[in-house]
Write a structure and sequence with these properties.
By secondary structure, the protein is of the alpha+beta class. Helices cover about 55% and strands about 25% of the residues. It is built from two helices and four strands. Strands 1-2-3-4 form a four-stranded antiparallel sheet. The longest helix is centred in the first third of the chain and has 54 residues.
Length: about 130
């Protein structure tokens, strides 16, 4: 009877080890998938903001130029490494429009830039 008990205990221990190992592997796979999904959502948001801006006739080069100037004014000691349009807020009229950029400095720091229009010219939004 004790041999049967030992065999049952070994089988139970193996089943528990397999269940724990499976849970750990599943957790890692889910975390890796979530990171990939987050990157895909961020890219889709950038593309949607750019498409929306183009659809509304906003000139991308003027927007980016204003964002670069706003970054240089706000962070004069930091070099701009990347600039992504992440949101377009198109309100009635033109002076209430807003564009939001994510600017990345050479140090890797990320900054959010809000631009608005003043008499048809893109300027840093007063936030």
């Amino acid at each position: 009877m004790s041999t049967l008990l030992v065999v049952l205990l070994v089988v139970a221990a193996l089943l528990v080890a397999l269940a724990v190992g499976g849970a750990i592997a599943t957790g890692r796979r889910v975390r890796a998938g979530a990171s990939s999904l987050h990157q895909q959502v961020e890219e889709a948001n950038r593309q949607l903001a750019a498409a929306h801006a183009e659809d509304r006739g906003w000139e991308r080069s003027a927007l980016e130029g204003a964002a670069r100037e706003a970054f240089a004014a706000a962070h004069p000691a930091e070099e701009l490494a990347g600039l992504d349009l992440v949101q377009v807020i198109d309100r009635p009229g033109t002076d209430d429009d807003e564009a939001v950029f994510r600017a990345t400095g050479a140090s890797g720091a990320s900054h959010e830039l809000h631009l608005g229009r003043s008499e048809g010219v893109w300027v840093p939004a007063g936030r």
